[in-house]
Amino acid sequence: MRIALVLMRYNPFGGFERQAALLARHLLDQGHAVTLICARWRGELPDGARSVTVPFISGASWLKVWSFARGVSAHLQQHGGEYDRVIAFERAPGADLYRAGSACHRSWLALRAQQGGWRDALSRRINPLHGVINGVERRIAEDARTGRTRIITLAPSGAAQWREYYPIPPERFAIIPPALDFSRFDNPPTRQQARATWGLAESDPVWLHVGSGFRIKRLGLTIAALAQAPLTHLLVAGRDKKLQRPMQALAQEWGVAERVHFLGGVDDVAACYAAADLLVLPTLLDTFGAVTAEALFMGLPVAVGEGAGSAALIGGDARIGRTLPQKITPEALAQSCAQLLQAEQSWDEQQRDDARQTRRQAAMSCAPQRVFAAYEALLNSI
């Protein structure tokens, strides 16, 4: 097949872009012809792929979104016959498949209305970006409703968000998680080696936070919960320029500063998983959350907010972890974490091995071969 992948910028280091590049390489390996429809790109394209640029206005964010969606629509109207299938990794109407890597914007705005103050409300009202994004998504939703487009969400929660605001039949959605390369975790350091890096004792309970965006991932809540968990340490792998110092000050206020280890950006995140006992991520909203799958692959139990798409990996299995409600107190979070670790300690070695295998199996739904097989089946079904 002749397949076009749509993304605003080709950058091999970005999240959307990595997913598009992985899929492009797989499709090329399967003998398909692949075209990348971009506004601009950086770095080398996958071997064998060709690129097409569309008109794009740089500057204000709303102009970028509007001009790119308009440019893609115009290109597909003129050259759509050159492609058998079109997969959009960006908000752009007219594609056969739209991969919703970002949350439905109206859902995101509703969350901001709940969590933000008056400054945030003013920003939402006067910033034209929100109206532009909602307009583009409205066109995508109409394409889905009328049968032209199928929307790929990374988890069932993503489809539910869209259907809350747009009358799209459930059969117009497909659930395909991101493709994750777990090979970088094939030779992790030992628990003892990893803990020695940060001066942690073998007997110390250790929670782990991975990711930037401290506000949406509610690191403040995790720090407050840590105050209810004596002797427990928290590793924070990730950087947030705006909230780094406020979070450090919060740790001081709660009297846990000596037990919170701000690591910044970490190249070898495998060492963090090896050192930890539990991933704690009470996220408010995330289309997926790859760190959940990574932690499960490494054998850790997870405590994940219900707003994260990756909470679906838990599937109600207490051996895998626990899904945290949006309205949860620090005390309740600390209790949930304690219960997960107490259960782990109560098992014999065989039960712990079984639990680790169960977690790894849950993570393997993100293995590239499974994800690409789902894309192939979807492309063939159109």
Automatic annotation (TrEMBL):
Keyword annotations from UniProtKB, A to Z: Transferase
Stated name of the protein: Putative group 1 glycosyl transferase
Glycosyl transferase family domain location: 191-349
Transmembrane segments: none
Annotated Glycosyltransferase subfamily 4-like N-terminal domain residues: 13-184
Pfam families recorded: Glyco_transf_4, Glycos_transf_1
GO MF annotation terms: glycosyltransferase activity
